[in-house]
Structure formats: structure tokens, C-alpha cells
Amino acid sequence: MERKVVVTGMGLVSPVGNDVETFWNNIISGVNGIGPITRFDTTDYAVKIGAEVKDFDPTQYMEKSEVRRSDHNVHMAVAAATQAFEDSGIEGQYDPERAAVYFGSGIGGIETFENNFEKLLTKGPRFVSPYFIPMMIPNMAAGTIAIRYGMRGPALPSVSACASGTNAIGEALRLIRHGYADVVITGGTEAALTRTGLSGFIKMQALNMTDDVNRASLPFNKERGGFVIGEGAGALVIESEEHAKARGAKIYAELAGYGSTCDAHHMTAPDPEAKAGSKAIKDAYDECCKEGVIDPAKVYVNAHGTGTPLNDKSETIALKKVFGDDAYKITISSTKSMTGHMLGGTGAVEAIASILTIKNGIVPPTINLDVPDPECDLNYTPNVAAKGEFDCALSTSLGFGGHNACIGFKKYE
User: Fold this and answer.
1) From 3.40.50.10330, 3.30.420.40, 3.40.47.10, 3.90.1150.10, which CATH number describes the 5-410 domain?
2) Is 403 among the catalytic positions?
């Protein structure tokens, strides 16, 4: 028998706030987290803006020695997981053998790689850090969180580019649903706003080249020209419903659906017909509808919505394939218009936005959507937040390699 899975804790670090309350207040207010890159000199770079995490101090969550031995992506992951763990109130109320960590990262410790490779070339191999490998590998966020909380079930990373965080949450859902764990800390993290990361995305021609922070991340806008690279992490504590109820936990939402497919089409470009992308969305939505049909007018979609010409058009096609004429009834927004694209961390942060949308009945806007694209003609909640009642929220993530992932949340009453 499949078990219901519920969300009992949330935490995040993002370009628009380093805790859930600040993040939520900022995104419903349309606060733009994009600005000039401050972490390194961008004089020689064609792109000079990004969505940096601001005023983040990892020593609030980790010992200084632990901070020195870990990459920035792990710092943010631990911060998000700590917030979610404390929010859930689960300490001392789980069997370590039945507790797991599924945490995604598309790239892992790219800053660590940069710094140590530079030392290798300029000073020689004796100057490479003994912690280089464990700091670099993308499973270390999951491993570090599991060590911190003594969770001895599986601790796995999902590494599927921009879908990493969403895939981690979806696979964690299945882990509990089918009886392999009672509790999972799950989410995603990324810290690729570095010299190498920025250079690579520039050479791919994936980024918007403007210096105007209000014309940079333009999901579904006819003038869109690429995404804005960001960073961040999000974490959820999810449990079986019976486990959560037995300990009297507060419940934010039911994690009710998951779809995962591959375009099998191109290394970076989405399938223009959105065949596999639409199936991932439909699979998640159908699972949410197992207990009865959900009115499309009460469905919110937090779109992948990167602001690249191909992605936004393909995602619009996918939603029309899933919902047909009812696609015009659903409410959509792209919070990347404010946070930029947090890559492996984006799905987890957007999962939190989705949960809070159905819980609070407020839709975060797609800011700077002032030039509608005729090929993207659905309701993307332009410019200002909207109120509404929603029974279901879908959060979509689409990654290089053709990875498509969608998770679905239902209002819990």
C-alpha cells in the first residue's frame, strides 16, 4: 500500500532572502535579487550581473573548521537543511535507520576546483588541499547533512543539471511512499556563480548579456535573451503522513506527485514538441488527481521559466499538451524573474514557493513581464502578485541533457 507523504519542515538560502519568511515576503513583493557580481572582478567578462546570495554567514550553521573544509554549495545546503530540520521539530523523533537524505547538485564544488587547479598550475601539486576531492564532489551536501543528523538510511545526490533539486525531492517521495524510509531531508544546492561557471555559460550563449538588472531575467517576455546565473539552496523535511501525525507535527502540504523523463533529443536544447516534458508534468499532475479531479482553475504552476527563447516556448507547449484548452485556466509564474537561475538549487527553492502559494493563497509574480510573447500566451501572473485559492501546485524543472522533472503538492487539510 502506498503511503501519503507530507512536508513538515522548510529552509532555504536564496538571492532574495536567507530564510523562508524573508524569501516569501520578497517574492510576493516582486523584489529583484539580481545585481552586479561582487565576488570576483568581472572586467574581462561579457556578463557582469548575477543573482548572488547576500549577507550569508555559514558560521551561523557550521563550525569555522567545517566551513574551511567544505565548498560554498555545502555551506548553503547545510544552512537550508538546518532551518528545515529545526522547523520540523523532528529532533529525537525518528529512527536513524529509517531516515535518509536525498540532496541534489548539478555541479558540486566548482569553486573548490577552480581554486585548487589554480594552485596546481601556479605553485605545484604540493599546494593542492588535502580536502580538494571531498570538497569538490557533488554528493558531499547529502553526506554532510546525513552525518550531522545521524541519518543512516540512503544518502544520495541527484545530479541532473537544473532538474537536480526537483529530482531529489521526487525520488525522496518514492522512497517514503514505497516504505523504504519514514523521514527524508531533501532538496538541492548550487554555487556555480564563479569565474569558471560564468565563463562557461557565457561561451554557451546561454546568458542574457544586458547590464540592466530589470531587463535581465525575462521569463515568457518577447524580449527575453537568456537566463541569469544565480546560486542558492532549498531543503524540505518530508515524512510519511502516519509518522508526522504520530508525533503531532505541523504539516505544510502533501507531496503528492512526481514525474521524471528525458527528451532524448539534444545536449542543451529542449525538444520543441515537448513530448517528454509534457509527460513529466502529466505524470505529476495525474498522481495529484488520484483521489479526484482537480479543477484546473485551482492549479498553480511554478514554471521552470528561465527566460531563454527555447525553454519558455517549449514549456508553454508542454502545459498546453497536459491541460488542453484548460491551460488558459491555470495560474503560472516564474520566480526566476527575481531569483535568477539557481541551477541545482532552483527546484528545491521553487518547491517552497509552490507550497507557500497553495498554503497562503498568494501567487508570486513574474516580474518585468511587460512585452508579452504571442507564443507564450498563458496566465504567467505578470508583474504583481495575485490572490487565489489553489488545491494543487506543480513545480517544473528542465535540465541540460534533456532532464525533465515535475513535483506536485496538494493542500493539506
Assistant:
1) 3.40.47.10
2) no
